[in-house]
């Protein structure tokens, strides 16, 4: 008995040490995806240094949408910020110990946000002033970074005396990101515009931040319904996919779309509804409809419906996993790119809106829908539309996995 007790205790200790916590996340579709914050010391000053801080989004399909990012940290000593370009701290803090010139921020734990578009040029640097919005690496790589510059005082003035900030936090609409400690890395090298000269930072440290859906949302944010042209049966979004209604009320706020209090186009919210009242209570619904089944091709219509009265989804995207993407032929109404992953087969694709056409999914109402169509070629040796194969395995909206109907509810396809 004593041997069994010791063995059981040892097993429990091993499991506790090796199990993952709820905040850790691994995304098989984007295993190397992360946000890296690079802190480049560009010059020394009499009482500190000038640094450029850049937030790089290395995630393939997850982006930071409005109202944008905010970056916080805790100074190691008694550092202050004398001035900033391309960003600002949300509070100045207590600067009473200074006489004469007053620092821009004296906060022990400052929070920095991006400046808004239209900021005067003398307050801008490269990659700034987008309101904190950062695109995903695949969707728009030219806008997948955001930068600001700050002059730090009461700090070290050499690479041996400067102290690295602690407790770095990246907050985004969600939230969902956890940042590791800052690590000193090889100084960043910069290529001049004419590509004839290379300069480098005096000192560089990196901070890596990873995303966890467990931290980002208490409940799912989207669901999928399935239908077919030759079957009256529809597989709806599962009941309570994102929340539940109880006795004509809800655990989360919702509004009846026929209510006179529903805001019209261009109106401000009269009350504070969150989502349209539905059986699934999801802010976003994706409808996958098998539209046509030709002899050599088959066509799918996807409808994305915004049921959130408080949100316009800018630069939205879908990630769809389906075994027939090897035979994908055409897309109408969106952009398309195969998503590289650990899989050896091409079974996953990313779809997103066309700029100035349908890249903004408006809030709930008449204009809160986006339609797109996909055309696939049939390969009878590897694919059949029967037994649910015409429907996707997984769908992500803006990087978050959507709730799928149970397999036994899928419509039958002839």
Could you explain how this protein is built, in words?
The protein has 414 residues and is mainly beta. The protein folds into 2 domains: 35-215, Sandwich (Immunoglobulin-like); 218-259 and 270-409, Immunoglobulin-like (Sandwich). The protein has helices at 2-18, 213-216; strands spanning 35-45, 48-57, 70-74, 80-85, 87-89, 111-114, 145-153, 166-171, 177-179, 183-185, 189-191, 198-200, 203-211, 222-228, 231-235, 245-246, 249-250, 254-255, 275-276, 284-293, 297-306, 313-314, 317-321, 328-332, 335-338, 348-352, 360-361, 369-377, 394-397, 400-401. The strands form 8 sheets. Strands 1, 2, 4, 7, 9, 10 and 13 form a 7-stranded antiparallel sheet that branches. A 6-stranded mixed sheet has the order 15-14-20-21-28-24, with no helix packed on it. A 5-stranded antiparallel sheet has the order 25-26-23-29-30, with no helix packed on it. A hairpin with a 2-residue loop joins strand 16 and strand 17 (249-250). The model is unreliable at 1-23 and 265-273 (pLDDT under 50). It is found in: Cell membrane.
Give the helix proportion (percent range). Answer: under 10%
Q: Mean of residue pLDDT?
A: 85
Distance between the termini: 61 Å
Q: What is the top-level CATH class of the largest domain?
A: Mainly Beta
Radius of gyration (CA) equals 25 Å
Contiguous uncertain segments of 5+ residues: 1-23, 265-273
Q: From the 3D coordinates, which CATH architecture of the largest domain would you assign?
A: Sandwich
CATH fold-type name of the largest domain: Immunoglobulin-like
């Amino acid at each position: 008995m004593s041997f069994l007790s010791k063995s059981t205790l040892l097993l429990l200790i091993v499991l506790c040490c090796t199990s993952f916590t709820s905040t850790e996340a691994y995304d098989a579709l984007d295993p190397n995806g992360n946000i890296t914050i690079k802190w480049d010391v560009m010059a020394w000053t009499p009482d500190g240094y000038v640094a450029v801080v850049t937030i790089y989004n290395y995630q393939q399909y997850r982006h930071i949408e409005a109202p944008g990012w905010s970056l916080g940290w805790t100074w190691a000593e008694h550092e202050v910020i004398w001035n900033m370009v391309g960003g600002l701290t949300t509070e100045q803090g207590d600067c009473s110990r200074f006489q004469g010139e007053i620092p821009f921020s004296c906060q022990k734990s400052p929070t920095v946000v991006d400046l808004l578009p239209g900021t005067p040029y003398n307050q801008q640097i490269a990659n700034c002033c987008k309101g904190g919005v950062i695109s995903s690496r695949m969707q728009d790589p030219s806008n997948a970074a955001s930068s600001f510059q700050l002059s730090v005082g009461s700090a070290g003035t050499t690479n041996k005396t400067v102290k690295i900030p602690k407790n770095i936090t990246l907050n985004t609409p969600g939230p969902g990101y956890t940042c590791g400690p800052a690590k000193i890395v090889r100084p960043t090298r910069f290529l001049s515009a004419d590509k004839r000269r290379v300069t480098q930072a005096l000192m560089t440290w990196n901070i890596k931040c990873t995303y966890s859906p467990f931290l980002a949302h208490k409940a799912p944010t989207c669901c999928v319904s399935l239908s077919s042209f030759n079957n009256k049966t529809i597989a709806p979004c599962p009941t309570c996919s994102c929340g539940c209604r109880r006795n004509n009320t809800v655990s989360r706020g919702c509004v009846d779309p026929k209510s006179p209090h529903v805001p019209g186009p261009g109106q401000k919210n009269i009350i504070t509804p969150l989502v349209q009242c539905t059986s699934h209570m999801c802010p976003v619904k994706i409808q996958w409809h098998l539209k046509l089944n030709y002899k050599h091709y088959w066509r799918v219509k996807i409808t994305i419906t915004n049921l959130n009265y408080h949100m316009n989804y800018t630069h939205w995207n879908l990630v769809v996993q389906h075994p027939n993407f090897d035979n994908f032929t055409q897309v109408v109404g969106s952009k398309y790119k195969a998503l590289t992953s650990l899989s050896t087969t091409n079974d996953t694709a990313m779809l997103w809106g066309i700029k100035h056409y349908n890249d903004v999914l408006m809030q709930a109402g008449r204009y809160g829908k986006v339609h797109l169509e996909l055309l696939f070629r049939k390969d009878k040796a590897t694919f059949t539309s029967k037994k649910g194969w015409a429907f996707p395995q997984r769908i992500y909206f803006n990087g978050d996995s959507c709730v799928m109907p149970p397999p036994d509810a899928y419509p039958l396809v002839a």
